[in-house]
Amino acid sequence: MSDVAPSIPTEYQVYNSYETDPTYQRKFSIVWASAAAFFFLAALPTFIWSLKSGRFRDALLGVREDSNSYEPIAAGTGRTKQAGSSRFERVSGWVSALKAPTTWTVPLLGLDIGQLILVVAYYITVVLCIVLNAELVDNPNRAGFLAIAQLPPVFLFATKNSPLGILLSSGYEKINFLHRWAGRGTLLAAAIHGALWIRNHLEYGVQILGAQKETSGVAAFALLCVLAITSVRPIRIHVYQVFRLIHILVVPACVITMCYHTTYMAPYVYPILAFYGFDLFLRLVRYRVKDATLIAPDAQMTIVRVHDCSSGWSVGQHVRLRIFVANRMFESHPLTIMNAPQATTCLGDIGVNHEMLLGARVQGDWTRALNAYARENNFHLDTGAGKEAVRATEQARNVVIENEVVVENVQEGVPVNVAHLPAPSKTGKDTTETIATETQWPSAGSGALIQVMLDGPYGGCAIDLGSFERVLLVAGGSGVTSTLGLLDDLVGRIVKLGRRGGEVTQRVEFVWCVRSFGALRWVAPFLSAIASRATASPDLAISLHIDVYVTCLCKPEEVPYIPNCDVLVEKPSVRRLVDGLLASFASGAGAVAGSAMSETDPDPEKPDSRVPEGADRDWKSLAVCAAGPESLTAEAKNAAARVALRHPGRRVECHSEAYFL
């Protein structure tokens, strides 16, 4: 006889959840970690580009002031790289075509096809790991194990300085949707675990509350429900500080309670602490306390001039700003950087040197208080004039907002010729009119002095615009703060640095959709400076055109002069803008894409009958960048995807910044 004990037949073995279920925890962890590694390999070219361009270094070190000013080479001494002939361009074109279907945005969900596939795959993995070979009804521990296993990815996708985001060269806002859906997956698994255990306790007459394990489990689930309820979008939008405070207080309490509930939570605390600790460490390294000047061009916009900042950020990025004023020092808010670093900015002609510009549109209590402080503490004005300016600006704002009436000789879809508008009155007695029409950038001695703390930068454009022949920049409302910085950097690299980086961009179309003509006043100095730089070097072959679309019929006399700019009274279609940009090359670099839109062909979904047949066959690469409302960015992504599918083999990329929470 053998000394080996006989094995128990499988059908008679008792299910041991503490032996079987942790293996599915590990399987789930292997799956999501493998997926993260796959996407890192797919994004490896972008990561290498971020290393070469300095973005990776900036992500670690933050904003800085260079001791030695950079002196650019003279314009015209650089070299222009021949685009479209390399194997890289052809491969990139086919990759764009293959990737295009995944960028289509799904209505209502706020996700594109690629994001939706990721979410569905995530939930399929979670559900399979919960139900495979599990006696879930009799012993629902498996669902609890999977709730714990999801906590590391929840924290990985949540932190501002996520290791995954840095490796993917992607901002936290791009992967934050995974944090939200992983959090919901955690709640789902915890709900299955808790509901089935409560059912079993009720069925067998076991007390639900009282014992330490049951009580801590119910408490942990209640805390998860609080997090889920207070994380819905309306709360994030309207009472963000409440949402943030609840997260700060409840998340640690939930993790600690889960540790009391089960000893199997302990191994998963370490990656949570590692991700959170890494985030805190990078924040401490990149915190900067700077002197700044607040400038309020009107009652709807505040510009923050942060001094002694030369580099350490990329265009399209944002920082979280904290102002040291009374009770506002405990709040930090994200503001987009409006200008390029000192080496490439075109705004030096208007006095923007070694500083960072941030734009804040009045939309809530914090931005309203910021604007009011800037106007009330403007030290450049004569004694008593500050409050007068505040009252006058308020009147100007009311005029702009309330007087949305049709003006004679202004037809919808027809450009307003700003070159022939009367110059703004400088000597009139009406202070309101003077403030409403003033377009000059304030001198260095004006504004409200303040100290601020910078946290960042974060996000940014993930594509190199200089490697595309044609670039379309589309902004809606305050999204212009993002596209303005992209335009500043691109024109500076071409004109100021003489294409020394091999930039191939030939045509740039800048489009801004705004409510009223008056909003143009504060942005006009920046656009004028950039447009003047672009037109000053014809030998570098850069064609820049600016279109401003006004959605309300207001007062055209408020439109300032901007070189190469058309102002149209209509709502634009991004699809038509893309088609016009691609067709403009055939009819000359100076063609105006916006002129293809008029009241004679109002349907944005129909092809433009005035675009010549075959006029869009000469381009090889296109970049579309959109910033603003979610509807605008979704339309831009769909338009770029449509072009990529229609022209396989040509490189088409889209970058979007949706302004929502």
Describe the structure.
The chain is of the alpha/beta class and 661 residues long. It has a domain at 288-658: Rossmann fold, CATH 3.40.50. The chain has 20 helices and 15 strands. The N and C termini lie far apart (71 Å). Mean pLDDT is 79; it is low at 71-84, 381-439 and 586-615.
Secondary structure layout:
Blueprint (H helix, E strand, L loop, with lengths): L16 H26 L1 H10 L1 H7 L25 H13 L5 E2 L4 E2 H19 L9 H9 L1 H6 L6 H5 L4 H33 L7 H18 L3 H6 L1 H22 L4 H21 L1 E11 L2 E7 L9 E7 L9 E5 L17 E7 L3 H12 L8 H18 L12 E2 L14 H7 L10 E12 L10 E7 L3 H17 L10 E8 L5 H16 L7 E8 L14 E4 L5 H11 L36 E8 L1 H17 L4 E8 L3
Parallel strand pairs: 10-11, 10-14, 11-12, 12-13, 14-15
Antiparallel strand pairs: 1-2, 3-4, 3-9, 4-7, 5-6, 5-9, 6-7, 8-13
Question: Largest beta sheet, briefly?
Answer: 7 strands, mixed
**Strand order, sheet with most strands:** 8-13-12-11-10-14-15
Structural class: alpha/beta
Radius of gyration using CA atoms only: 28 Å
Helix content: 40-55%
Runs with pLDDT <50, length 5+? 71-84, 381-439, 586-615
Which term fits the overall shape?
globular
Individual helix count: 20
CATH architecture of the domain at 288-658: 3-Layer(aba) Sandwich
* Strand segment count: 15
Average per-residue pLDDT, rounded, comes to: 79
Could you name the CATH class of the domain at 288-658? Alpha Beta
In CATH, the homologous superfamily of the domain at 288-658 goes by the name: Nucleotide-binding domain of ferredoxin-NADP reductase (FNR) module
CATH fold assignment of the domain at 288-658: Rossmann fold
